[in-house]
Amino acid sequence: MSTLLGELTRERVRPETEHRLLVCGGIPCSSKGCREVKESLDDELRRRGIAAEIPVEIVGCIGDCSLGPAIIVYPEGILYQKLTPDDARTIVREHLVGGRVVEALLHRDPRSDEILRQRETMPFYCGQTRLVLRNCGVISAHIDDYLKYRGYAALARALTEMSPQEVIGEVKASGLRGRGGGGFPTGRKWKLVRETPADEKFVICNADEGDPGAFMDRNILEGDPHSIIEGMLIAGYATGARRGYIYVRAEYPIAVHRCREAIRQARRKKLLGENILEKGFSFDLEIRTGAGAFVCGEETALISSLHGTRGDPEPRPPFPAQKGLWGKPTLINNVETLANIPLIILHGAGRFVELGPEGSPGTKVFALAGKVRHTGLVEVPLGTTLRQIIYDIGGGIPGDKRFKAAQTGGPSGGCLGEESLDRPMDYDSLRRAGSIIGSGGLIVMDEDSCMVDLARFYLDFNQDESCGKCTPCRIGSKRMLELLQGITGGRGEEGDLERLEQLALLMKNSSLCGLGRTAPNPLLSTLRIFRDEYLAHIRERRCPAGACRALSRQQGSTEEGTRAEAETVDR
Amino acid sequence: MAVKTDPEEKLYERLDRALKKYKGKPGVLIAALQEAQEIFGYLPRKVMIQVANRLTIPLSEVYSVVSFYSLFSTVPTGKHRLEVCLGTACYVQGAEELLRELQDLCGTEPGKSAPESPFSISTTRCVGACGAAPIVKIGEELHGEMTPEKLPSLLEELVKE
Ligand SMILES: Cc1cc2nc3c(=O)[nH]c(=O)nc-3n(C[C@H](O)[C@H](O)[C@H](O)COP(=O)(O)O)c2cc1C
Ligand code: FES
After folding, report:
1. Would A9 be classed as within a structural domain?
2. Does ligand 1 lie within 6 Å of residue A462's CB atom?
3. Which of A28, A351, A401, B41 could disulfide-pair with A446, CB 3.0 to 4.6 Å?
């Protein structure tokens, strides 16, 4: 037995005993100056001659972006928030040298006015079930840290105790559904790839994260890249693939860098390459970056892009599982889907199905953003209600404004209004409400957001990103956008809504790929819930939310006045 | 420093060296173009021709890829590249207002090369920092929780550097 294998099969999560500083290096924190905070910590530790004893590590997103820049001080697990470089010096002097927690820099719960020391005691965290995000913000992206937290133990288990068929059986039994948007049963897809005969097969990790407003994949790639590599290794073993690709969008340079490093480390430990763990299984990985095209998140377009050409989608079937990259059977899974795999193999499908409702087991990571107090990644069992996510975890709407709608599923998704606050968030229930879970983007809007303008925003996006290959999508999205621009610009006419609905139906039914088929969804769902708001724009030349600049908020402005204004502002 | 060569010629030599590793391999056009853009800052026609020749790919195919992906630019960019995120989270937090303000301040707009302005503006769709929306990206740096009021001092600092 190889020595590494021996180590991997041992239970070992080591409790924190030593002083250690974790600086949140998530992108929101970076954009608020976490690097300066780290430099200041390093500097002060050096000045006091204790830099060697107290490591300072940059970790993936700690979680609550509204508290950034944030750090966690181990072993106590104290979370300090909203830090300046000066605050960092104070923490070294008072906490690390003096042994006194700096109360002024802790988080105070605005509702109870209570001071909260540990991240685990904050409502934002204790309402969550962080499984996929288990390591994010807790360990660094280095393989040594991952190994300490039972990393690659699932791979060891799969290779030593399970046949490929048993691995697929376990994934099937878990009921895991694809987290990339489609919600397709993962085990079934694996089985299809396994059973398609070919001399070569591939595994692709879809890290294109196209939904603007979703950032969970980015966080996993940056904070816990080894969990993805491990997931892909297990997928390769189960399906019979020997090569894998991670397709990352180019807007994520840090994620690309961390993944490259992680692959290098895994190769050095011989967890990638030939004869892994001396079990006769070989697998290796490469990273490919996108070049800024939303449609490339769609699996057939992604494959076109990997072929080095325009990211044009192809009709399905054949599905990539049968005929994908270079015409070979190809498994495509989303980042979060793959991050679930080690957990399922290590702890068993039985534990997995305990979470979430029937038909939608497990957890889902939502990217909570928009008009909500605490923004950031929220991982909860599927079936948690929107109210729990927005109010209990997210702390509600700032400025005591009223909740108006939540948008889920990004440009392919829809809106949920007030009446959906108590709706369980799972695949089937959201579909019934006219939206989708999608990749987990969750944008909260308050009374100041205009739903017509939101529909315009998404159509603008989809029109812009349409690859132009099929006519319904290319022309349909253009015509719909023009109508919506007219309505928000004060030029709407009776009959516009019916024309929109007609076009929407046409696009949905006849577009080539998912982009065109789902592009009308944001429009249709807002039209269903907020039809009055559309009508106010058209009949009264009024934007009830006061967001459309070409229209007045109040009733009674003369038509002429608005027209003139519309012409000057319209683009 | 001692040897004086035409800086542009040097860039083309660099491009040639970079392209060697892609020759004859399938599926490498995008990666090759990304590297070419890194070298030149954008993709002028001459560079596209060179890529086509070296990889023995029709120029029309190179152009179809360049025009498809938004990351490739065929116009030169200003010294300071400002990107306003127009992803949903940023949009809901007022990114369009930011963009308008920035256009007024810089006297240029997305997609335009304004030789007299030290800035070029573009838009992007979500840089994955939605928790700190709205975001303005300057070069590789992200600036979160931006407001129109913060913009003038930010630009001033850039010009000073
Ligand atoms: C327009 C469009 C964009 C998509 N973008 C993404 C994306 O960014 N990331 C992703 O994982 N899946 C995306 N998908 C879904 C993929 O086609 C595919 O279903 C998914 O990667 C499969 O992985 P999963 O089963 O693990 O979810 C997109 C689909 C469409 C139609
Ligand atoms: S929407 Fe701007 S960073 Fe995500």
Report:
1. no
2. no
3. A401
